[in-house]
Specification:
Elements (H helix, E strand, L loop, with lengths): L1 H16 L3 H28 L3 H12 L2 E3 L8 E5 L3 E8 L5 E2 L9 E6 L5 E8 L2 E10 L2 E8 L8 E8 L5 E6 L2 E6 L6 E6 L2 E5 L2 E5 L4 E5 L5 H23 L3 H14 L1 E3 L4 E3 L4 H4 L12 E3 H11 L4 H12 L11 E3 L14 H12 L2 H21 L1 E2 L2 E2 L22 H8 L12 E2 L4 E2 L1 E2 L1 H21 L2 H19 L2 E2 L4 E2 L2 E2 L24 H12 L33 H11 L5 H22 L27 H9 L11
Antiparallel strand pairs: 1-2, 2-3, 3-4, 3-9, 5-6, 6-7, 7-8, 8-15, 9-14, 10-11, 11-12, 12-15, 13-14, 16-17, 18-19, 20-21, 22-23, 24-27, 25-26
Helix pairs in contact: 1-2, 3-8, 3-10, 4-5, 5-17, 7-8, 7-9, 8-9, 9-10, 9-12, 10-12, 12-13, 15-16, 15-17, 16-17
């Protein structure tokens, strides 16, 4: 196309410049349209030649640009990528105590609106005798930050504006009174700025102000505080109003989901990627080098995050699905966790929901390159389950020994034992695994698991759809055959008298009467008949003695002794369980039940969100409250409760397994 572009353009230009009046008006527009068309063709040709991996790398480079709250160590650190210039906010209270990092889950911060791209952020701080609101508005190299007292703070309180370079990036800094400038090593121009407020002093790269009056930081632009404040208001109004217009009565439902995802979104310099760990509070403890911050991705958590991101940001949705899939181990499975310095759970995986996430992204955006990029790892993972976790034709949770790799503390603490097998389930201390033996020779809990086997059948069916899109006919046949084989075996776990599928001990061949929401997962794979599904729902899900009530769905039935433990997966409500049960209901003609699950999920989320801006890791099944010593207060999969409601209310298209 480039060979014909130039001659045609020159010919048209010749006719135009030689004043052929009868053609001039026509050619004026024809030249413009032709130039645009040729540019589009060339642009398409350039991207068409990219491999799936190159597409993704290009997308990641685009993500890692601009001002945002990129640094996991503190939500009050604003970093300019890719340069690493940073404006960090420290606070000194009335007693002279200085705090230099603030994480949301600590309870010191109330997270407000946050655009995915960092163009507007809003967060409030309540620490000791200091109460402040911090807003920002960013665009390219420009960033405006305003710190406003919320109450009458202790007059000795101070805000310190720290100018620095992070992650050992080359950034030269100069401070002169209230003025400053950055000079990143790979940026030709200087970034100038000025801070306004009740100035106290400037030392080295720090500018100190009183917290008695507002402080306005204008970086990358020459703008006065009043105009800066107006610009902040415009950014806030535009963001909030657009979301209110799009989501109407479900604005706060969406707002909670977007906020927790946006605030948990970070850049990790060790892998040079934008990712979204489950919670900022989890990251530091997983770091091999706290100076860089650290991160940890969990398997099914990250896939769920990618699905939630798809409601508003394609690139971040892809980033999280790709990064967790590409952490696949040498043995061929996506690990339970993946952290810095190649530290990952090489003994165990987690629930196989990767194909559900990737297929849902493809159904929305239609990018076949994403399927091409991830399918080889997803089918490898699928085959691993069949080869390594199969007893008597169904799957069991497990933990397999392996040669040590990183020699980090605790790397081998839960390998090839009962607890390691429980961790693979994602339901760490579930009552379902009490007294179930672990076979150290076969590396598995001796229990055919209804939930895992159902998820695996779903995985086979969805991967068959992906393989069909990619033209892999042999794989389609393999996957459908495996789905059929497991489906036949799973039906054997149906108890006609009880109207439910039960886990089965592989050593005694007896059913395990202790159930959880995972016993409803066969609906995800479309295994039960309509009649069977109706019995499961009526006799168990909607049974107030088991799972129904004001607050649902508890991880343990209300009539099980472990329900009263109210400890982690024993008795509490978990959003991913609600979500997977809800998705299973999508496959059946049970609209009233589905609507009830969605409505109760929405009410549960909004109760804590509207009170203190928290999205909890899990919730109390009796009180509907989030606070607990084992419930992180800003954990992104809690927003699956929002995601359910947005699907039910028609804002997000559901995925049905037999599409």
């Amino acid at each position: 196309m480039k060979q014909v572009q130039k001659p045609i353009y020159l010919l048209l230009n010749y006719l135009y410049t030689h004043n052929y009046t009868h053609m001039k008006k026509f050619l004026k527009y024809y030249l413009l349209i032709s130039a645009v068309c040729f540019w589009l063709i060339d642009s398409h040709a350039e991207t068409k030649d990219l491999s799936p991996q190159q597409y993704y790398e290009q997308m990641q480079r685009k993500l890692a640009t601009g001002w945002n709250t990129w640094d996991t160590r503190s939500a009050l650190t604003h970093v300019l990528l890719p340069y690493g210039a940073a404006i960090d906010l420290h606070v000194i209270d009335g007693k002279g105590i200085r705090k230099n990092s603030f994480t949301i889950g600590s309870g010191l911060l109330h997270a407000g609106p946050h655009t995915y791209d960092g163009k507007y952020t809003d967060i409030s701080l309540r620490w000791n005798d200091q109460k402040l609101r911090i807003e920002s508005s960013a665009d390219s190299l420009e960033n405006i930050i305003r710190i406003t007292p919320l109450e009458e703070n202790n007059p000795e309180g101070k805000i310190i504006v720290v100018l620095k370079g992070v992650w050992q990036r080359d950034v030269k800094i100069q401070v002169n009174g209230q003025q400053f400038q950055f000079r990143p090593g790979n940026l030709k121009q200087e970034i100038k700025g000025q801070a306004y407020g009740k100035w106290i002093k400037s030392e080295r790269n720090e500018i100190t102000f009183s917290t008695q009056e507002p402080v306005t930081i204008c970086c990358g632009s020459d703008i006065e505080p009043v105009k800066a404040q107006n610009k902040l208001r415009e950014s806030a109004d535009r963001f909030v109003n657009n979301n209110k217009k799009q989501y109407g009565d479900d604005y706060e439902v969406y707002n909670a989901m977007q906020n927790v995802l946006s605030w948990d979104n970070i850049y990790d310099p060790t892998i040079r990627k934008v990712i979204t760990p489950v919670s900022r509070d989890w990251n530091i403890n997983w770091s091999s080098n706290p100076n860089y911050g650290g991160f940890v991705l969990f398997c099914w958590d990250s896939y769920f995050a990618s699905m939630m991101f798809s409601a508003g940001n394609r690139e971040l949705a892809y980033a999280n699905a790709v990064e967790i899939t590409k952490s696949i181990t040498e043995s061929g499975f996506v690990p339970n966790f993946y952290s810095g310095n190649d530290y990952k759970s090489r003994d165990r995986s987690q629930p196989p929901v990767g194909s559900l996430a990737v297929w849902s992204l493809y159904k929305k955006y239609g990018d076949k390159w994403l399927l091409e990029l991830l399918y080889p790892d997803l089918i490898r993972w699928n085959r691993w389950w069949d080869k390594n976790r199969n007893i008597d034709g169904l799957l069991c949770w497990g933990s397999s020994p392996y040669p040590r790799v990183t020699y980090r503390n605790h790397e081998y603490g839960s390998v090839n034992n009962h607890y390691g097998g429980c961790l693979e389930s994602g339901l760490d201390n579930s009552h379902m695994f009490d007294n179930v033996p672990f076979d150290t020779e076969r590396h598995m809990l001796l229990q055919n698991d209804v939930g895992l086997s159902s998820l695996y059948i779903m995985d086979c069916k969805l991967l068959a759809l992906i393989a069909q899109e990619l033209g892999y006919k042999k794989d389609v046949k393999e996957l459908r055959k495996r789905a059929k084989q497991y489906s036949i075996e799973l039906q054997k776990l149906w108890d006609e008298e009880e109207g439910l599928y039960y886990n089965r001990r592989t050593d005694t061949r007896k059913k395990n009467p202790r159930i959880s929401p995972t016993n409803f997962y066969p609906m995800l794979a479309n295994i039960p008949s309509q009649t069977q599904a109706e019995r499961m729902v009526k006799e168990h899900l909607m049974n107030p003695q088991e799972f129904w009530g004001e607050w649902v769905i508890p991880a343990t039935p209300r009539n099980d002794p472990a329900f009263k433990d109210n400890n982690y997966w024993r008795g509490r409500i978990w959003a991913p369980l609600n979500f997977l049960v809800y998705m299973g209901l999508q496959n059946y003609d049970l609209p009233e039940v589905r609507k009830a699950v969605a409505e109760k999920s929405k009410v549960l989320l909004l109760k804590e969100w509207l009170k203190d801006g928290s999205v909890y890791e899990n919730y109390d099944s009796v009180l509907g409250e989030g606070p607990h010593r084992r419930s992180d207060r800003f954990y992104h999969w809690g927003a699956l409760l929002s995601y359910i409601a947005l699907i039910e209310d028609g804002y997000i298209a559901p995925i049905k397994i037999n599409d």
